Amino acid sequence: MSNKTHFGFEEVNTDQKAAKVGNVFHSVAAEYDLMNDVMSFGMHRLWKRMLLELAGLPENAVVLDIASGTGDIPKLISDKFPSSQIHVTDINGSMLALGKERSINENFFHNCSFALVSGEALPYQDQTFDLITISFGLRNFTDKQAGLKEMKRVLKPGGILLILEFSKPTNSIFSKIYDWYSFNVIPKLGNLLVGDANSYKYLAESIRMHPAQEELKQMVLECGFERCKFYNLVNGVVAIHQAK
Ligand code: SAM
């Protein structure tokens, strides 16, 4: 891997990125859920439900959710697959603590174990999980290939990988409106609701630096997965990649 990478539009040394991403999520953690609802007009809830629609699981399945944040995906997995055992993980202690608290408040703690884990170096044995989910996390990785290879390593043969991530709108007029919204409205909302415009500027920039649908699909295949396909939501603003 090159020793340079991107933090939004800024070029940084690879060893600096995780700390910079860490600062973003420490800063926004307390208002993270509110901002998601406001920025996406509540649509992120639907996107996350759609993600789970693509997961079929046996009884007592073992699931890894990477970059769990405040626990939206573990909550949905617990509701849909009550016998599953969910490994709830995040690199960021502030976000993971909110996810844990929520699991107690919303009564899905019994399905979950919690660990401070980087998705780029997974501390699990080969072929452990029936399902791996990652929602709005991959974009923040320093080395996405390393992360995807780790996911492949710990997934059981026949297991499913589901990635929910911002992607590229397919319609050029819609894309211009979306760009205007991302760079003009979202940082202002960040300032108003969280007191932090820069973290939301990073959000808009990191989305533009993330591989588009087809490119991410190729990356997933190159990292050893098979039968990768993607689904565009809201004209490709968001995409779900599913691979076996
Ligand atoms: N999955 C949640 C959701 O969909 O609402 C949270 C997504 S939030 C936008 C991104 C999360 O990725 C943050 O909680 C952040 O700490 C985490 N993250 C960033 N880099 C990571 C990495 N290398 N490994 C694991 N988690 C990471």
Q: How would you describe this protein?
A:
It is a single chain. It is globular and about 45 Å long. It contains nine helices and nine strands. Helix content is 46%, strand content 22%. The relative contact order is 0.15. The protein has one domain: Vaccinia Virus protein VP39 (Rossmann fold), CATH 3.40.50.150. With 244 residues, it is α/β, with parallel strands linked by helices. It has a seven-stranded mixed beta sheet, sandwiched between helices. α2 (32-39) runs antiparallel to α7 and α7 (172-194) packs antiparallel against α8. The model has no long low-confidence stretch (mean pLDDT 95). β4 (85-90), α5 and β5 form a beta-alpha-beta unit. The structure holds S-adenosylmethionine. S-adenosylmethionine binds at residues 21, 25, 66-69, 72-73, 90-92, 95, 118-120, 135-137, 140-141.
Ordered list of secondary-structure elements with their pairings:
Layout: E1 4-7, E2 10-13, H1 14-28, H2 32-39, H3 43-53, E3 62-66, H4 72-80, E4 85-90, H5 93-105, E5 112-116, E6 129-135, H6 144-154, E7 155-166, H7 172-194, H8 197-209, H9 213-222, E8 229-233, E9 238-243
Helix pairs in contact: 2-7, 3-4, 7-8
